[in-house]
Amino acid sequence: MDTAVQVGDVTQVYVTEERATLALQGISFDIANGEFVSLIGPSGCGKTTLLSIIAGLLPPTLGRIIVAGHHVQGPSPKVGYMLQQDYLFPWRTIEANACMGLEIAGTLTKEKKQGALHLLEEMGLLAFKDYYPAQLSGGMRQRVALVRTLATEPELLLLDEPFSALDYQTKLQLEDLVVETLRAKKKTAILVTHDISEAIAMSDRIIVLAPNPGRIRRSFLMPEVVRAAVPFEARELPEFHALFRQIWQEFGGVQHG
């Protein structure tokens, strides 16, 4: 299988007048095309810093990032970023918000607009295209944010705790929707989350990071039966619960060493 992302020996140092802080040390991993990988670990392990580096928003102190065969040297249309907040513009309609990324990239054609409307339809939002963000629930707004991200047809999706502000039922519904959408479109994705259950339910592979400095502690490949299920159903499997206990124990080790 082709490689979509290469993270090569990435180290990140933050320097202030008072001190230099080693945030990430020697992070290396590859992600295959169409693979869904979660980064989990306690606060201070540099998950969001690493995502920002992969997105091209932050240059690494050392190391390299390659996405779709190209060295990352800044933000790229090849990479879509979905955050905890939906960041919809309140004065723009849902349709206009969905097309925002295309506008910024200067690629908003009639065909691309139709593509965005088709995505809204797939997400059950077409009937709300003339509404404004304040008229939608949090879960609906995050679906619009996903449409806005997918409309630009990125090769890699970065998801930074996109469900953490939602209620549990909405979160479970969105997990299923996101996984099914990304599988259907054969998209590669990296999810940052604190939620072990979410990571197991959604991922093909989990990378556990240890803190201070952020470094890879261990990787877990999800069993095929878990990977084949949608997240809601995956949570019911005995393999899911065995894996949760294993990763939870790993987290205990992360906290203490």
UniProtKB/TrEMBL annotation:
Domain of life assignment: Bacteria
Gene3D superfamilies: P-loop containing nucleotide triphosphate hydrolases (3.40.50.300)
Entry-linked InterPro entries: AAA+_ATPase (IPR003593), ABC_transporter-like_ATP-bd (IPR003439), ABC_transporter-like_CS (IPR017871), ABC_transporter_ATP-bind (IPR050166), P-loop_NTPase (IPR027417)
Keyword list, A-Z: ATP-binding, Hydrolase, Nucleotide-binding, Transport
Keyword Signal in annotation: no
CDD domains cross-referenced by the UniProt entry: ABC_NrtD_SsuB_transporters (cd03293)
PROSITE patterns: ABC_TRANSPORTER_1, ABC_TRANSPORTER_2
Documented EC number(s): 3.6.3.-
GO molecular function list: ATP binding; hydrolase activity
Keyword set includes Lipid biosynthesis: no
Annotated ranges, domain ABC transporter: 5-236
Catalytic class of the enzyme: hydrolase
PANTHER family, per database record: ABC TRANSPORTER ATP-BINDING PROTEIN, TAURINE IMPORT ATP-BINDING PROTEIN-RELATED
Name by which UniProt lists this protein: Aliphatic sulfonates import ATP-binding protein SsuB
